[in-house]
Amino acid sequence: MAKPKDIDWRELEAIIDKHRGETWALIPLLQDIQETLGYIPEESIEPIAEALNLFASQVQGVISFYAGLSLKPKGKYVIRICRGTACHVKGGRSILRFMKKEVGLDEGETSPDYQFTLETVACLGACFLAPAMMVNRTYFGKLSPPKVTSILAEYGKKKGEG
Amino acid sequence: MEEISLTINGKNISCAPGTSILNAALQNGIKIPTLCHHPNLEPVGACRLCLVEDEKSGRIMASCVTPASPNMVIHTDSPTIKEHRINIIRLMMANHPESCIVCSQGNRCELRQIAAELGVGQIGLYPMPHYTGLEAANPFIIRDLSKCILCGKCIRADHELVVVGAIDYTLRGFKSRPATVHEMPLEKSDCTFCGTCVSLCPTGALSLKNTRYVGSPQNESSTICGFCGVGCSLVMGSVDGQIVEVNPSHKQDTVNRSTLCVRGHFIHDFLSVPERLTSPLVRTDGDLSPAAWDEALELVAQRLIGIRRKNGPQSIAFLGSSKCSNEENYLFQKMARVILGTNNVDNGSYGSGRTITSRINERLDAGGRVKPLAELERAEMIFVIGANPAESLPVASYYLKRASRMNGIPLMVADPRKTALVPFSSLWLPLAPNSDYAMISGLAAILYKRGSYDKDFISQFTEGFDRYGEDLSSFKLEGVSRVTGLDGELMERAADLIEGKKIAFVIGHGILQQRHGILSMDALLNLALMTGSLGGEGKGLHFLTMENNQMGAWDMGTAPDFLPGRKSLHNDLIRKNWEQNWEVKLSPDPGLNTIRMIEEAEKGNLKALYVMGENPLRSLPQPERISNALKNLEFMVVQDILATETTLMADVVLPGAAFSEKGGSFTNMEGRIQSFEQAVAPPGEAKPDWEILGLLFAKMRYPKRYSSLDKIKAEISDLVPVYSALERNEEQTWIKESSNSRLFHLQGEGEPIHFSPVIKTEPERSDEDYPLRAILGSLRYHLGSGTRTAHSVRIKDFALKGEVEISLEDSAALKLKEGDQVRISSAHGSISREVMLNPDLRPGLIFIPVAFHNNDVMNLIELTQLGEANSPGWKECRVRIQKVEDLC
Q1: CATH domain B291-352+548-730 topology
Q2: Which residues of B touch A54 (CB under 8 A)?
Q3: What was the pLDDT predicted at B213?
Q4: Do B354 and B554 form a contact (C-beta atoms < 8 A)?
Q5: Strands B316-320 and B608-612, how do they pair?
Q6: DSSP code per residue over B582-615
Q7: Poorest-confidence range of A72-76, A142-146, B168-172, B205-209?
Q8: Phi, then psi, of B286 in degrees rounded to 5
Q9: Which of B533, B554, B696, B787 lies in disulfide reach of B528, CB 3.0 to 4.6 Å?
Q10: What is the mean pLDDT of residues A109-127?
Q11: b/e string for B429-440 if b means 16 or more Cβ within 10 A?
Q12: Among partner residues A54, A57, A64, which is closest to B166 by beta-carbon distance?
């Protein structure tokens, strides 16, 4: 089984050191780690807390609060399907169902090869594109099953695999 | 600033700007229901029950987080508000399990109370309780988070009051709960089991783990904690005359402000153990057997008087207690001095460094003693030396951590070990044991060279600075680095931190029990004088006192060279004055201190010893030597609450009462005199100690009768000016200082304080046979030698092993791993322990917690007089470690 990206502890330490003493910078720091490693390893909670003069419990509280921060490794590509009202009206639920089948994942799951993570979002704020989704930072709108298939192909997912 | 006026429920009121609407209402007797509000915590507006309506704007807002503004017209109970409140409560109840019938919170549940007040019975909503597992593996706290209403009081108390940070919210929305890091059980988290969260929890989500279900206590009474010198105010709940629960007092001006520590909260279960003494015991045919009070007291009176007649007053000694009340200590020393004519009186605080603290007392003439802990939160900077209050006096450590984390006050910690305060400090000075005097003088020398000292203060209040300055300018800083192990740069940084600031010093056993305690004290006082850090708010010396009434016992004269009021016995005028007070001729002969009592017993000169509330066989170094010395006595009386190593050797055992079973007063480390009343009756035939002493006074034909506590209080307040406020019987008052130092006089009359010379010493030589240095110190689960705390059922259940802590380097060199059994030997004795690796310890040092395994660690150190030139101190000793299997 493929492994998530190995933690580069030196890289992690460098990110933490960049913000040492900056109690206000907890969220930028966490975003930095999330961006670099794709998740925030549990083992980094204590060093972060120590560097920022916070309690470890506070750091954990912030990480677990935000959907954008994760303590679990995620796939290389994070697919976020919009479950907002506009998308729902335009068939967002079917898109989700189709996507689940295509990537073979349920909501919140990550593929064993750490290629894909499937998530849902309350609203992407792109109602004019409904039904919409994001893959990492790219928006995709006016989705249909064939369009989903072709987008996935772009990210290297062949039909039926999963 | 001008007051704001507004209307609440038709009543015109005014309040200071910035006051929340909730507080403005409360100040005016208008009640608003709340679940998440607490006067000692920052408001967060979590529960929304305190909603109020502004008639003018129509806005509905949470009154706890909305400041009152001018001309508001607030309604706290309008139909709209009521409806909202009822809905909030209904939703909370829909999310709450229906386990009230087995919930120990019972009718004290605030959710239930408010629901009842609002008339919510059936909620009419689909119940959606959020079941979580019950956590009850530790012997202190049960967590049933399905009952949590997310008020956040536990989290805020943990962060804002106790400053531990073991828990915070985790997740979001419906799943949100207070959680430890990595969701570990409490015993594997940073939790210190202070139990403050349990006391503040409005529901049954957090509750006290009791050995049997007790529900709500039948009675609640206020008292003062009998463990350490902080003197926390408590509320003790009892069922059928037994203490079943302890909480911090609800009063506002207490030293502990709704916090407690694990001892105060959970360890009072030792009060109802079967080892409590319940009837007087008299040794007949070699065995102790129950006797009637009259018989036992008659025997004590006759034997003591008989021995005095035969061997003279110097053959009798009295060992009083730093745990007993002021009233009891006063009577105790009076019995020794007035009836038996001896000054051989001491108390357990000898081991906490009284002879060393005495140096400050001498140099300041007992000035600067009133030092409220609250001042620490307003200090310019705090310097903690030789103290680890997070373990020894936890509630005092909360003040330090709050000062640092909440108020940003610079905190400097000088300690060989990385203590729990270090993460809160601006600078840590990891100095070699016993080198504090060099570090302190080094700092003074740097400041002197920089020319940064308080010239006005020095010229106004002190004498001898020129000479001191000369000493400092010839002081070699390289020498300091050699002795302390601190490099020049670190010392400069420490001086930067102090420079230009008034310092609040916090001093602990690391100084008070060490080899160079007196030298360190002198150096410290010089530094305080030089920086003008004495005589005023937010500066001065805070001494951490290990036991609840260490200060009071000393003040009452339960010390060989002090008469009540901490006045020297060797001052003829003072002695004459007390001769008049007591209408008796007092012996001018110096009395024996604790150690000299043991030495005289060894020599056979001491014939009788009266011990009240002390367990010298467990608390003093070299227990075997103590035991042999005590065997030499012709007669020993021990008055105590528990059967101890010492009571077993006694000829007469008198069962006394614990603090919760009697009235009296204690004086805490701040100089606060706190009176307390009886909460429950003593067990069996046991009696309050003052009553026992009063009966003995009568048996010894003393004309005055001490039949009530008030009589003793009246005599103390009459004769001891420092305690003149005692008789008023207020719950708390402060000692009245009297010092001849002009620093402590408003009009500037009186004597200057003298600088003492700077003494240079060399680094201590290492010892090949004993290459490691063991530091002995406390863990928060025990107090002192652990006589009382080791009896606690909860502490026994917690099964701490008291492992020796070893650095990674030393453990590698000695091929030791976690859990190995080792033998630790010093020149005086040896003990066995399990190994625990501590990555924060510096190589060469090991740490051994005291109080475990019957406090056998006392075998390692030598019985010497603290503060004497030849004493190696009681804090540290040289040892070697061997793995047990290697020895077999």
Answers
A1: Rossmann fold (3.40.50)
A2: 165
A3: 66
A4: yes
A5: parallel
A6: HTSPPP-SPPP-HHHHHHHHHHT---EEEEES--
A7: A72-76
A8: 85, -15
A9: B533
A10: 92
A11: bbbbbbbbbbbb
A12: A57
A22 and A58 both lie in a single domain? yes
Is the Cβ pair B168, A65 closer than 8 Å?
no
Structure tokens belonging to residue B109:
């549940």
Q: Which helix (H) or strand (E) holds B887?
A: helix B884-887
Total domains present in chain A: 2
What's the pTM?
0.94
With a cut of 0.95, is the ipTM above it?
no
Q: Rounded to whole angstroms, how far apart are CA atoms B79 and B546?
A: 56
Quote the pLDDT of residue A162: 43
Which residue of B169, B409, B840 to mutate against A (max A Cβ within 10 Å)? Answer: B169
Question: What band does A4 get if pLDDT is binned at 50, 70 and 90?
Answer: low
Strands B876-883, B772-777: parallel, antiparallel or unpaired by DSSP? antiparallel
Of the partner residues B164, B168, B172, the one whose CB lies closest to the CB of residue A60: B168
Confidence class for position B773, pLDDT limits 50, 70, 90: very high
CA distance A11 to B670: 49
Report the residue of chain A nearest B405, measured CA to CA. A53
Which of the four pLDDT bands, split at 50, 70 and 90, describes residue B638?
Answer: very high
Tokens of B217: 């206590």
Domain that holds residue A121: 77-154
- Kindly report the CATH number that applies to the domain delimited by B369-534: 3.40.228.10
Tell me how close the Cα of A56 comes to any Cα of chain B, in angstroms. 6
- A51 → chain B, closest CA residue: B423
CB B85 within 8 A of CB B49: yes
Residue B471, pLDDT > 50, answer yes
Whether residue B165 and residue A65 make contact (CB cut-off 8 A), yes or no, is no
Residue A35 domain flag? yes
Place of tokens 């007051």: B3
CATH 3.40.50.740 segments of chain B: 291-352+548-730
Q: Do A58 and B179 touch (CB under 8 A)?
A: no
Answer yes or no: do A48 and A89 share one domain. Answer: no
Q: Which residues of B touch A60 (CB under 8 A)?
A: 168, 170, 179, 181-182
Position A3 confidence tier, pLDDT thresholds 50, 70, 90? low
Distance CA B630, CA B810 (A): 39
Task: Identify all chain B residues contacting A56, using CB atoms and an 8 Å cutoff.
Answer: 165, 181, 190
CATH of B772-887, one of 2.40.40.20, 3.40.50.300, 3.30.390.30, 3.30.390.10: 2.40.40.20
> Closest approach of chain A CAs to the CA of B632, in angstroms?
56
From chain A, the residues in CB contact with B164 under 8 A are 55
**Which sign does the torsion angle of CA B689, B695, B696, B698 carry?**
positive
CATH number (domain holding residue A97): 3.40.30.10
Q: Which residues of A touch B (CB under 8 A)?
A: 42, 45-46, 50, 53-58, 60-61, 64-65
Minimal C-alpha gap between B396 and chain A (Å)? 20
Nearest CA in chain B to A71: B182
Residue B305: CB atoms within 10 A of its CB come to 16
**Residue the block writes with tokens 């700077």:** B758
How many angstroms separate the CA of residue B177 from the nearest CA in chain A? 10
Q: Which residue of A has its CA nearest to B179?
A: A57
Nearest CB to B165 within list A42, A57, A65:
A57
Question: Is the domain of A82 the same as that of A137?
Answer: yes
CATH code given to domain B4-77? 3.10.20.740
- Domain B124-272: give its CATH architecture: 2-Layer Sandwich (3.30)
Q: How many residues does chain B have?
A: 888
Nearest CA in chain A to B408: A53
Query: Computed over its alpha carbons, how large is the radius of gyration of chain B?
Result: 29
Does residue B757 have a cis peptide bond before it, meaning omega lies within 30 degrees of 0?
no
Read off the CATH number of the domain in which A35 is found.
1.10.10
